[in-house]
Amino acid sequence: MSVATAVAEQVLNGLVVGMVYVLLAAGLSIIFGVMDVINFAHGELFALGAYFAFAIAGPLGGAGFWVALVVAPLLVGVIGMAIERLTVKRLYGRDPLYHILLTFGLVLIINDLITSVWGKSAQPFPIPAALDQPIALFGFTYSMYNYAIIVIGSVLALGTWLLLSRTQFGMIIRAGSEDREMVRNLGINIDRYYTLTFGFGAALAGVAGIVLGAFQNVSPTMGNAVIIPAFVIVVLGGLGSFRGAVAGGLFVGLVQTLARTYTPFLEGLIVFLLMIVVLVVKPTGLFGTSIGAGEHHDGALLHGAGGGVLSSETRAKLGYAAVGVLVLVPFLAELTGVTYSVTLLEDILIWALFALSLDLVLGYAGLVSLGHTLFYGVGAYASVLTLIHISPSVFVALVVAVVVCAAIAWFVGYLSIRVSGVFFAMITLGFAELFYNAVFKFDFTGGSDGLFGVDVFYGLAGLGIDPGEFEIPLGLFVFDGGIVQYYFLLAMVVGSYLLARRLIRAPFGSVLQAIRESEDRASFIGYDVTAYKRRAFVVSGGLAGLAGGLFAANNGYVAPSFLHWINSGEVIVMTVLGGMGTLYGPMIGAGVFVAAEDILSSYIDQWQLVIGVLFVLFVIFVPRGLVSLPRTVADHPTFGSVVRDQTSVTETEVEQHD
Amino acid sequence: MTEPILQTTNLTKEFGKLVAVDDVNLEVERGEFRSLIGPNGAGKTTTFNLLTGALRPTSGTVTFNGEDVTGLPPHERVRKGLGRSFQITNIFSGLTVRENVRLSAQAAQHGDFRPTEEFLKRANTFEEVNAHTQRVLDRSGLSGRGEEVADNLAYGDKRRLEIAIVLATDPDMVLLDEPTAGMSAEETRATMDLIHEVLSDRTLLLIEHDIDLVMRVSDRITVLHRGAILAEGTPDAVSEDPEVRRAYFGGVEA
């Protein structure tokens, strides 16, 4: 085979992958452009398409594939419409963050449904016999099915373009994306069009799932595998731009395929590098315009409000009580023999610290960091590498973790904070994925295995405690190394909370609160809003690095999964679950989330489904988080009357003064 | 004649083919109450945004207190003494009245804070900031309401707070963006009285389309028409100007 033929084949392979991306990204982009919804569940809709086709084609045999190619996307479309009607629709007018959260919950639900119906392992989904053969065109042979994918993709892309640009349907949704109230005032039922648009985008994802499923196989992780590249494409091309989605999809498909063959080291990295470069140079993407999509934030972030029922004194007492209980837990655990609870609490404490760090940027600076696990993961790697190569002292390791993460946060913040909103979210996600893919590539990071078996010393220069050898018997109770670890962790987490609270009460934090209330106003009384946000991001990155470092030091290992985007999603969930903008709320959220996950997963297989459903309900009905529940109850017309009588108006004021 | 406090030289802003502000040379004297008026689309808001720094001009310069501020972002212009109020009340509505004013007072002084103070000292324990806050609250008639949440204030008091926030930045000059937009005659009078009461010792530039109001309060008036200055002078002179009458009143005798 000549070089030219080899290149031509790679280019065709790239176009095949690219077409799948085009279909995915087109749906994602239309949904964003029209409704401002960032649909994380798009990858799961894609997987659903593949599985529906798999289920339909199997029993039907030969012609089954063609029936499935029509029926499965329609089914996915109907599911998409149902999702829009039942969930997404309730959140219009809120900040796009809530759609990210909602659709993140939907990912858990749909993914769990898929695994419970079709199992966890990948299954073969045969290409129809008629297409399963090579064909010679222009002097070289190539798979007919691959040509078919390119044709199907092109036809659908062209059809979508015609639909958007030449039909009344397209005109109305384009008008709706510009000014939805205006369209409504013209007497058009725009809501119906939104539902159709969502369904249409979902159906396109379904088609993409089918063609890729038959190209490779069907597996429950297929949605997870494509969603991040699909986002990259949408951002590269320009949010909400159909042309951008098509060009970006083909481009990324080509680049990925060619990189795999010719520069294997860059595979998995190059796409994210490209995205970062494009966003830094042209924040609106290749085809995006600043007008129209992405920049019209009308909804506000809803912060947790503890006020009204619990006074700040009561909350302080609850805080002391919580710390008191946490101090006593090791004793109780030993006496009752439930030592497992200490491990669970260590997990909770680390996630609480991680959520606290996120709250500083999300709740106070209003920045949706979608890649916060970058700092958690890098903190973990930095501390383990320090423990192995530099010093066994946990103090040194944690200092290195914090400093490295703060430096990276400064750099990422420097590049991205001038770019607002959705773009910041995407750049942070891009950096996190870049690091995630990078740790697989190097020997010093342990590749896909990570780094194991690290010994930790709680001291400096030989003075301190080696948890492996430490043991002081105290009657019934043995004060051992594990307990030293626990108390060290507890002290670090409580200390970080106190530090964060202090920052928030200092001039620095007071300005962050001002920015959260009104960015314009803060700027026009003389504050450099961008600089304040960057500083908050640096502090946040440092604290997240501390959380990752603590986890790694406690458990003696680090792995690439520390950098996986699911962590970023989970920590956002915890933060909002507890009530952002309160510091303690996200920590409570982390406790509830980790505990619920732990309990549910030990009793039922479909625990992700349960968590997903609870979370979706939560985002819709209790967006201000758990800490707002006392007030929500107090404000309730019937339940509230009892509680309200006991609270005076002045307490609300005290709250605000706090 | 002394040096003007604010001066624009050949200030121009184009949006694509549209020339929103066309070669505007504006001079505002220290201590005067100047108004910038014009019909809808005359370029008032664009000019305002060029002065505050929200927009960058296509060409031309803005000089404030003898210093070229054309390239400065809004917050730095504010620190140099160029304050602004918002058309729609823009206050930190979830915070107390005192905290609103304190933040503004802090902005004027926080450049002098040491890092340990900036990050670790309680924000409400800076004596100079607190004293300045109290002075502004007293002056703007809000001293009794310091502990109320701003959002719970009545409409008039919100406007009062808006002005107090501007005053606390200790501006030499205040740009007022249609402060009475959408108000009844009664509210308009109250707001203008408030501006006189609180900001009378500062240079004021009022952006307004209500011509009667402008005639009443201004020392001098600049009339914008299609992005360019059509006329400038005292209220009487401007109202007699035939060009202005044609452009602004559409030829109808007022």
Automatic annotation (TrEMBL), chain B:
Domain ABC transporter: 6-251
CDD domains named in the record: ABC_Mj1267_LivG_branched
Pfam families: ABC_tran, BCA_ABC_TP_C
InterPro entries given in the database record: AAA+_ATPase, ABC_transporter-like_ATP-bd, ABC_transporter-like_CS, BCA_ABC_TP_C, BCAA_Transport_ATP-bd_LivF, P-loop_NTPase
An example molecular function term from Gene Ontology annotations: ATP binding
Family: Belongs to the ABC transporter superfamily.
Origin: domain of life: Archaea
Record keywords, A-Z: Amino-acid transport, ATP-binding, Nucleotide-binding, Transport
Protein's UniProt name: Probable branched-chain amino acid transport ATP-binding protein LivG
Protein task: Probable component of a branched-chain amino-acid transport system.
GO biological process, one term: L-amino acid transport
